[in-house]
Write a structure and sequence with these properties.
The complex is a heterodimer of chains A (about 425) and B (about 240). Chain A is elongated. Chain A has about 425 residues and is α+β, with helices and mostly antiparallel strands. In chain A, about 50% of the residues lie in helices and about 15% in strands. In chain B, strands 6-7-8-3-9-10 form a six-stranded mixed β-sheet. In chain B, strands 2-1-4-5 form a four-stranded antiparallel β-sheet, with helices on one face. In chain B, a hairpin with a 2-residue loop joins strand 4 and strand 5. Chain B is of the alpha/beta class and about 240 residues long. In chain B, helix 3 packs across helix 4 and helix 3 packs parallel to helix 5. The chains are: A alpha+beta (about 425), B alpha/beta (about 240). The interface between A and B is medium-sized, with 25 and 29 residues.
Chain lengths: ~425, ~240
């Protein structure tokens, strides 16, 4: 019967082209607007590492002074170098890495390329394994190289393409800020979005081009970038980045593979904080956090409020479009009351009439979905023209494409429910006599 | 074939209660051609709607082809209507957007028949009413008489046990009406059970038996004739 209903629906839709077009356009506009904003929101609010995000955590310690203390204060987002290096040495997690951003000058060997500055990340060996960073060539540096402040580097695919035309450059030299580094690994394309591990220089910024051991970066005093918050005075000879400086500027991430391990790590953080307080280093009561990756993004309000608002408004617009469609469908279906009466007399049950008209509504939804998809593409193109750090990330992928059609179908079926119900309630006897 | 006992039908609104049928007893045997007459508002149409399972009675018993239909739900009533009843309406009630083939196809679709069987039945039914060559025509391209013949083909296609005709010639001129009436008589002669509601005493006179409905109650106008005639005709042809 579905095929029969489909034929009848096509016949009906062809019969009144203007009304059909109005309904399709109404659904398409609602779908187009909703899918544009939903796609943006999904990309902005997406899980950057969906397979492992629930095992990644950002520890926080409340290291600030007593002056600004309030009991409901959140601990600082970043750690001091002293705490970060202590937690790294403690090795209480399955994996752990400290890190900060930097900006380095690369001096290419190729004469055709001029020296240039690029973003760098100073981190420790576990960074790559912990975040599932894919390697095209080579490997990460090892813990021993962290300890020895080795002159080793991992570079991005993009930088490898630029400097070495994409060939395996492992073992080759690379001059960074005047120091020769040996390339030990080349990454595949990797751009976690949002760039969760360091939100201080743009939530959706590109991943860095160069990765160096943190210890090396400190030994060479390479320039760092990102937020730094100093909460106490320090001696004039002490730099902000020195081990003992009362400044938070290090991001620290741990991998904890089970709930028990997470609980144990939380207990470890409390103990660590208690010890630091007992030693007179921490002035505030113990106040630690261990947020998972997605909790961290939520806490940091990564998704722009206007993206959420736009999505709510677009779905509101979809509802308005659907209400219009309900009205148009009602008018269309009830105008066919005589035909419904005849069909009922000839053996169509209420259910059959309901199904027939719901198929018609669904067909309008699919057509509206197809047109809405085009509008969503147009909308996303417009978003990509905006000067935001996430513009380049915005695209319609397969799941969203399927969602578009599913949403259009569900929306049109929902819009068709009342009209189809009203149609199947038509009393045949009255219609047959009134003709 | 059709047995109604003490059938009543009351239409209620907030202000008024209208008794369309009052304890109506009516029996139609297989192979009969019964004309139902009566003044306007007497309950003829209500009787036809209840007989055709388009409406439920308020009280009483209705048995169609041995099945008590009083307590059936919409699905079962629709299935029974589809399999056992063929309707012929005064205003033909063909679906204007469908050609004759597809119009005749409508009741067969709801029966879930295979395409090949439907095609055969549609072509046979259209041939029987003399419209085999018009199957691709739309209702608007046909005369009133031809439209009514197409409606009869639609009623016949499903081989129903009972044909219910509501003023089948009411919208036709006398020549077309005669043609339609002759067709009904032929169908009856072939063994069909027909109940025809009409205002026209001339048409009623051509039926085998006349029932008169007044104030929601039925009366036989003539004694029951020998019902074997039609049946014997049918058997002798078979």
């Amino acid at each position: 019967m579905f095929r029969y209903y489909l034929d009848l629906a096509l016949l009906s839709l062809r019969k009144n082209k203007v009304l059909t077009a109005l309904m399709i356009v109404a659904i398409a506009l609602g779908i187009g607007a909703s899918m544009t904003t939903l796609t943006v929101l999904r990309i902005l609010a997406g899980d950057p590492l969906p397979e492992i995000s629930d095992t990644l955590f950002a520890p926080q310690l409340d290291v600030g002074g007593k002056i600004d203390y309030r009991p409901d204060n959140e601990p600082a987002d970043q750690l001091t170098r002293l705490d970060a290096e202590a937690l790294l040495r403690a090795k209480r997690a399955d994996r752990q890495a400290l890190m900060t951003g930097g900006d380095v000058a690369v001096n290419p060997e190729r004469d055709s390329l001029r020296p240039f500055n690029t973003g760098a990340r100073y981190t420790s060996a576990d960074f790559f394994a912990m975040f599932n960073v894919p390697f095209a060539f080579g490997r990460s540096w090892q813990e021993a190289e962290d300890r020895s402040s080795a002159r080793v580097a991992v570079i991005s695919k993009e930088l490898n393409d630029k400097l070495f035309s994409g060939v395996d450059s492992v073992g080759k030299g690379l001059e960074i800020n005047g120091t020769e580094f040996r390339i030990v690994g080349v990454l595949e394309h990797w751009r976690p979005s949002p760039r969760f591990y360091d939100l201080s220089s743009g939530n959706y910024a590109n991943a860095e081009q160069v990765y160096l051991p943190f210890s090396t970066s400190r030994q060479l005093d390479l320039p760092r970038s990102g937020n730094m918050n100093c909460f106490d005075d320090r001696p004039p000879e002490m730099k902000d980045t020195d081990v003992g400086a009362p400044c938070t500027w290090i991001q620290f991430w741990v991998q904890l593979d089970s709930r028990d391990k997470a609980d144990a790590y939380m207990a470890f953080l409390r103990n660590y904080s208690d010890e630091q307080r007992a030693a007179g280093r921490y002035e505030r009561p113990t106040n630690v956090r261990l947020r998972s990756l997605m909790q961290w993004l939520d806490y940091k309000n990564v998704v722009p409020d206007d993206a959420k608002l736009q999505t709510y408004l677009a779905f509101g617009f979809l509802v308005v479009c659907l209400i219009n469609t309900v009205g148009l469908l009602l008018a269309k279906f009830l105008r066919r009351a005589p035909e419904i009466g005849v069909r009922r007399a000839l053996g169509a049950s209420r259910r059959a009439v309901f199904a027939q008209f719901l198929v018609e509504a669904g067909l309008i939804g699919i057509a509206g979905g197809a047109l809405g998809l085009g509008l969503a593409w147009l909308g996303l193109w417009a978003v990509r023209q905006q000067p935001t750090d996430y513009a380049a990330l915005i695209h319609l992928d397969l799941p969203m494409l399927l969602t578009t059609f599913a949403l259009a179908l569900v929306a049109s079926l929902a819009a068709g429910l009342l009209p189809a119900f009203r149609a199947c309630q038509i009393t045949p006897a009255m219609q047959l006599k009134s003709q | 074939m059709l047995h109604m006992r003490a059938i009543s039908k009351v239409y209620r609104t907030e202000l008024v209660e209208t008794h369309a049928l009052r304890a109506l007893d009516l029996h139609v045997r297989e192979g009969e051609f019964v004309a139902v007459t009566g003044p306007s508002g007497s309950g003829k149409t209500t009787f036809l709607n209840i007989a055709g399972l388009l409406e439920s009675s308020t009280g009483g018993e209705y048995e169609l082809d041995g099945e008590n239909v009083h307590h059936l739900g919409d699905n079962a009533r629709s299935r029974l209507r589809n399999r056992k009843i063929g309707f012929i309406f005064q205003s033909f009630n063909l679906i204007p957007d469908l050609d004759l083939f597809d119009n005749v196809d409508v009741p067969l679709r709801y029966r879930g028949m295979k395409a090949s069987e439907r095609k055969q039945r549609i072509e046979d039914a259209l041939a029987r009413v003399g419209l085999a060559s018009r199957k691709k025509h739309y209702p608007r391209e046909l005369s009133g008489g031809q439209q009514q013949r197409a409606a009869i083909a639609r009623a016949l296609a499903g081989s129903p046990k009972l044909l219910l005709a509501d003023e089948p010639t009411g919208n036709l001129d006398s020549q077309m009406a005669r043609g339609v009436m002759e067709l009904l008589e032929t169908l009856h002669a072939d063994g069909a059970t027909i109940v025809m509601v009409t205002h026209d005493p001339e048409l009623a006179a051509r039926a085998q038996r006349n029932l008169h409905i007044v104030d929601g109650q039925a009366t036989d106008l003539e004694p029951m004739p020998n019902l074997g005639v039609a049946k014997r005709t049918s058997e002798s042809r078979a």
